[in-house]
């Protein structure tokens, strides 16, 4: 039978493990069942282990365990504490909204009105259907006179669009009719920017593991497109079916900046556990990201404020 000191050492060991996994999540192998990516989908939730271990340490009256618990607390604050802070103040250049509106949305008109109420200059939508598209177009036309749609994704803009084209991010094995990406140039008061809208393939948890292969292939294609983009300032809006910690999105997150403030957990809308709706930028910063009220979708919309860096050569 374990002694009180022994049980305290067990709690201390678990505390060290709780700190080590988030801090070194990239070391968790992905070869079998993509375990690493699955872990990274829920990484901030490791913090919930700490209160349970704290109670166990008190029950065991273990000073060693209580001291050891400082490590996972400090690790969590180091990794995620900044996301709890309010959005950075000061001027910003662009407000954007990203939303997977759901192909089963019962009220597209109300959804469009809710998104426009956040007063963004850009709205990116995914899972547009042929029947719902005219409703979004009509509801958003007065405030967003410029828009582009490719397949099931669309971009509505208060500023003129140019150079719109379909983005081929279709992974091998998916049929020709699959079209879930676009690129558009947007003429803003601060100059032209390139905006990408994308909806990466869904992921599933199966007996064999985390099925993210198609998502990862699509992310690789999208990352290559962004890398080849000649316009310096880039905004990527989309349902990427992954968190910014997920190594499957590394072709994007290694080239772009992620939000510095705000968790903005967006999925599922009924009880959000992950932010898979993303706003990523290049030559800019995202001062804050937040969720908007629920619509008729299974995702929550997210809104973000973007500030440009000085243009190259200026």
TrEMBL record:
InterPro entries (UniProt xref): Endo/exonu/phosph_ase_sf (IPR036691), Endo/exonuclease/phosphatase (IPR005135)
Domain Endonuclease/exonuclease/phosphatase: from-to ranges: 98-299
SUPFAM superfamilies: DNase I-like (SSF56219)
Keyword presence, Transmembrane: yes
Bilayer-spanning residue ranges: 42-59, 66-85
A Pfam family per the record: Exo_endo_phos
Alphabetical UniProt keywords: Endonuclease, Hydrolase, Membrane, Nuclease, Transmembrane, Transmembrane helix
GO molecular function: endonuclease activity
Protein's recorded name: Endonuclease/exonuclease/phosphatase family protein
Species for this entry: Streptomyces yangpuensis
Top-level taxonomy: Bacteria, Bacillati, Actinomycetota, Actinomycetes, Kitasatosporales
């Amino acid at each position: 039978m374990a002694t009180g000191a022994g049980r305290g050492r067990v709690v201390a060991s678990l505390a060290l493990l709780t700190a080590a996994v988030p801090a070194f999540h990239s070391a968790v192998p992905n070869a079998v069942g993509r375990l690493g990516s699955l872990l990274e989908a829920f990484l901030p939730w490791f913090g919930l282990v700490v209160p349970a271990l704290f109670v166990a340490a008190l029950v065991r009256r273990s000073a060693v365990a209580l001291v050891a618990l400082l490590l996972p607390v400090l690790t969590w604050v180091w990794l995620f504490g900044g996301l709890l802070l309010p959005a950075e103040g000061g001027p910003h250049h662009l407000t954007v909204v990203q939303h997977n509106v759901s192909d089963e949305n019962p009220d597209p008109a109300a959804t469009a009105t809710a998104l426009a109420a956040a007063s963004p200059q850009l709205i990116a939508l995914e899972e547009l259907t042929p029947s719902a598209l005219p409703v979004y177009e009509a509801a958003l036309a007065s405030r967003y006179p410029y828009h582009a749609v490719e397949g099931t994704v669309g971009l509505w803009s208060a500023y003129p669009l140019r150079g719109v084209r379909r983005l081929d991010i279709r992974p091998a094995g998916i049929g020709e009719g699959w079209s879930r990406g676009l690129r558009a140039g947007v003429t803003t008061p601060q100059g032209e920017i390139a905006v990408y809208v994308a909806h990466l393939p869904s992921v599933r948890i199966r007996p064999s593991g985390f099925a993210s292969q198609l998502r990862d292939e699509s992310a690789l294609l999208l990352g290559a497109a962004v890398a080849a983009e000649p316009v310096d300032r880039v905004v990527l809006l989309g349902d990427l079916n992954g968190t910014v910690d997920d190594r499957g999105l590394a072709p994007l997150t290694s080239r772009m900046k992620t939000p510095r403030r705000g968790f903005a957990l967006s999925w599922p809308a009924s009880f959000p556990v992950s932010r898979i709706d993303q706003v990523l930028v290049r030559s800019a910063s995202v001062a804050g990201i937040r969720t908007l009220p629920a619509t008729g979708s299974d995702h929550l919309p997210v809104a973000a404020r973007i500030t440009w860096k000085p243009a190259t050569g200026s």
